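Please check our next protein.
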Amino acid sequence: MDNAQQAFLKLSELLTDIETAVISNPAKRSQALKKVKIEKILLNGKAAYRFARYIENKVIHENLDWGCVISEIISIMQTEGFKQCTVSGNFNLTLLMNKDRLFKLTGLKQNVNYSVFSEKEHNRRKKYILGEKAAPWMISLGIMDENGNITSGMQKKFRQINRFVEMLADVESHIPDKCTIIDMGCGKSYLTFAMYHYLNELKQKHVTIQGYDLKADVVEHCNKLAKDFGFERLEFYNRDIADIENTSGDIAMIITLHACDTATDIAMYHGIRWGCKVIMSVPCCQHELFKQIKNDDLSTIMQHGILKERFAALMTDGIRAQILEIMGYKTNVMEFIDMEHTPKNIMIRAVKTNKPFNAEKKAALDKQLKAFSVSQCLYRLCFEKKD
């Protein structure tokens, strides 16, 4: 029996389950595969193990059954030359491999906080903030069944909803009771319904939420659903977000999720000029700067269309975040959901503070825009005089 087989048998004897594992520290720094992350997931109602291979600037996923996990770890370490794998499960341990391809276990410790749980309980850990029971609106939308299990094909949407609610929970204390929240470009409104459920049914804030979208059939459908769900303070409108006015004066929060191109800027501008307490935005396609941007010092990027497009998108979001800071908001730019779900995964979240207009940051932004020869929509709306 060789050393690899001995390692396999020892791990198989110790480990009855793995929660997470990371294969890292490649022997050759230049190799394309940098690391492999392993995570226990729920797939079609059953436990599976997702192997995420980080290859240069890509991530490739593969899902395996438990019976293949340990042998796959050993195989990856041998064939790719990784020196270690850290494992967390019913035991925490590190598997080391030396230059002679010999394995050694170290750091072995029983995980006293680990308990075997069913796939259903595994799923419920991830949706804890929404409660243990399936909400009627989630059943109606086909996200969960009546027993609280995620339905087939809705795992990604379920994770997206929970991630959004987590981010909302972080700023919930800044959202006043009985205020109005505007969702600009609401689409099918999965996240709008989740926000209403969290703020009104769980937190009892009695807020009014208005959703706006340009598709009349979508608005009609969402209004019907809101009525069916008994969401009395939720209503949808078929209207361009550029035409919305704060006539009531009580709009405290703006959200915009995947509003196309400069529609995100218009929504943010509404939030800024109305003095909204919270602004949450997940930008979508961003074309405005792509045709403008010029900088000879970055010719290695600018000469390739795909790199230029990504750079322009990142710069656009950087400008938006800086403008919010200039206007007195505390701003965070964060990952909304994993890249495996959508490439449009950046959220800009801003909370109003008492800080005054920041002239120093405005000057720095002006310098940057000049350096790249660009004019950006939110900048024009906030700082350039209107005719």
In short: Residues 116-128, 338-343 have pLDDT under 50 and may be disordered.
